[in-house]
């Protein structure tokens, strides 16, 4: 989440669910647990997310770094993001499942793919689509959801 020194506003956070979930990659070699309040829930249609998910967008939840624990060795891939930050995906070296990501722009948070929690993710309610400029018309998203060409604009105090 951007703005405010990297902290979500209390109004936004109060509407976010408290998560207490454990999931694993497709082969079971990596386990991820999250316990704490979600910071943000959104969808991203950047070209990198489309490639990583094999779909038209990624559906993700942002969680504080201290609320996320993994068991098992992950492999990482680092790339430059449009923001100039370094974006790192952590995935299972056996099956390739992305288990989390992080941005050097927001080191206090982890980006968790909601699909990792398949069967236990009914709580997910995205509140925005970022990188709508590269969103494919065949990928249906809620038309009423705010859509931003790139990142959500900074809020001014």
TrEMBL record:
InterPro entries the UniProt entry points to: CENP-V/GFA (IPR006913), Mss4-like_sf (IPR011057)
Domain CENP-V/GFA: 21-139
Record Pfam families: GFA
GO molecular function per UniProt: carbon-sulfur lyase activity; metal ion binding
Keywords for the protein's UniProt record, in alphabetical order: Lyase, Metal-binding, Zinc
PANTHER family linked: CENP-V_GFA DOMAIN-CONTAINING PROTEIN-RELATED (PTHR33337:SF40), GFA DOMAIN-CONTAINING PROTEIN (PTHR33337)
Similarity comment: family membership: Belongs to the Gfa family.
Name listed for the protein in its UniProt record: Glutathione-dependent formaldehyde-activating enzyme
